[in-house]
Structure to design on (314 residues):
């Protein structure tokens, strides 16, 4: 009978332990109560070490702002016994450790890009407070930077700062209004090699590279390139285009992202005889441009005359 009682007691303890925080991620179970931590928000993109969260902020125009949540949590079986003031700070050491743990090179955004409250309150009788971090596409926003916002709990008015979840790194995605999935149709002529022709229709992504610039990402090749037909599948090496669109929806510039010129002498140039416009009503680009390679032929090696039609979110 004694052994049976011990067995029942053991099963009860195991069952109770398995129920504690079974559905919570990033909850420090080292302590039973009075622990203050940063809880989940957005997509959890790390499995160990400093927590990392990602939020897709969608389309954000130049000068505009969007927000993501920062959740500050009081752990334990009860709720906060009093108002608890929590001090948050941006901590470069947190980001440095996160980068090392994950093999990435995220950088802290400028203060004009990100702001968040440095003092928050978990109200008595509650277990969590949520505040917003604001992301602004300011003039110094770098669309090509891998931003990471390192948030650390640096002080609490009551309780213990979590040893495992007292800090976190928040990353986010921002796109301009031209970003998306598109289909390209048109005409291509290679004046140096008539056997190379356009491979239309093409499935591409217009990828945000600046507040008013996008790069053409060839989905079949898997990079910023322009696929062609030989008649088999191929592409021009070290050649991929970036378009600049002005406030009047004119396509004002096209460049080769690999250099103007690239190491193989290839550059991109807008052909002024084209329509060279973006139609916001239909989300359609009509653009004419050249690939130049003067070591092969002058003045232009390849002519592209393309219509690029939006098909959905990338």
């Amino acid at each position: 009978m004694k052994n049976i009682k011990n067995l029942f007691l053991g099963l009860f303890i195991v069952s109770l332990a398995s129920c504690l925080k079974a559905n919570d991620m990033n909850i420090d179970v080292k302590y039973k109560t009075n622990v203050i931590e940063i809880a989940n928000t957005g997509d959890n993109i790390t499995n160990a070490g400093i927590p990392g969260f990602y939020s897709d902020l969608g389309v954000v125009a130049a000068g505009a702002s969007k927000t993501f949540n920062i959740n500050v949590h009081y752990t334990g079986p009860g709720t906060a016994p009093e108002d608890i003031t929590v001090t948050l700070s941006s901590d470069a050491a947190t980001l440095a450790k996160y980068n090392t743990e994950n093999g990435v090179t995220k950088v802290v955004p400028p203060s004009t890009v990100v702001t968040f409250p440095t003092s928050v309150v978990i109200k008595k009788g509650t277990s969590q407070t949520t505040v917003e971090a604001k992301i602004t596409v300011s003039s110094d926003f770098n669309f090509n930077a891998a931003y990471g916002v390192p948030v650390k709990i640096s002080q609490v008015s009551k309780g213990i700062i979590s040893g495992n979840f007292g800090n976190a790194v928040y990353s986010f995605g921002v796109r301009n209004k031209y970003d998306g999935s598109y289909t390209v149709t048109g005409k291509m002529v290679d004046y140096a090699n008539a056997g190379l022709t356009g491979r239309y229709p093409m499935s591409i992504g217009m990828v945000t590279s600046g507040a008013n610039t996008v790069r053409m990402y060839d989905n079949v090749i898997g990079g910023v390139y322009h696929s062609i037909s030989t008649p088999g599948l191929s592409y021009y090496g070290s050649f991929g285009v970036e378009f600049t669109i002005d406030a009047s929806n004119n396509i004002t510039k096209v460049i080769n992202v690999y250099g103007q010129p690239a190491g193989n002498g290839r550059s991109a140039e807008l052909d002024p005889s084209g329509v060279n416009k973006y139609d916001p009503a239909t989300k359609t680009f009509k653009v004419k441009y050249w690939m130049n390679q003067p070591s092969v032929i002058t003045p232009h090696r390849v002519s592209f005359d393309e219509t690029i039609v939006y098909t959905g979110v990338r």
Observations:
- DSSP finds two helices and 23 strands in the chain.
